[in-house]
Amino acid sequence: MSPALEEKLAFTATLTGSYGAAGLVAGKWGCAVDDSVLHALVQRVGSKAETQTQERLQQVPQESQPQRRASELALLMIDGWLARFRGPGWGKKKSEQERVKWHEIKNGVFYLHEQAGRTEGGRGVIVDKTVVRSQGDSMDLGRRRLGRPCEEV
What pTM value is reported for the model? Predict the structure, then answer.
């Protein structure tokens, strides 16, 4: 038997579900083969496949994206927005005090370049990040992230 015929017969035996049925199907395309021959073929091919699987399981899988050397490149995204808070006159029918107080909230997201990645679908993900929020002045945001005073640029 040629390797191509062996492959075709093993595939036929797999799809038909029995060696006798595989022999009948093979006879339809001009290859009369006994079911005992098909049984021996499937056993040999299955044993070889099992050996290959066990060898593959012994190996450490290769990463699709191997770890890169750590870079010194980092990203810092900062945004500010106004948030409405209750003022001292909130909920009173008549008040000369402000009912609403507006405060600026500053958000910062910091991560290293190598911590960014993509999912299989192409969506961006960040493995490890630091998020800081501050209601104080802008320099307070940097102090909270870095743990030391920031210098103005």
Answer: 0.40
Which residues, in sequence order, are CB contacts of 101 under 8 Å at separation 6+? 84, 85, 86, 87
What does the alpha-carbon distance between residue 142 and residue 17 come to, in Å, rounded to a whole number? 68
Q: Which two tokens stand for residue 39?
A: 């049984």
Tell me phi and psi for residue 104, to 5 degrees.
-85, 125
Q: Over the stretch 115-132, which tens digit does the pLDDT of each residue have?
A: 888 888 889 888 888 787
**Boundaries of every domain in the chain:** 3-58, 74-146
Residue 122 structure tokens = 């192409």
Cβ neighbours for 33, distance < 8 A, ≥ 6 positions apart? 9, 22, 23, 26, 27
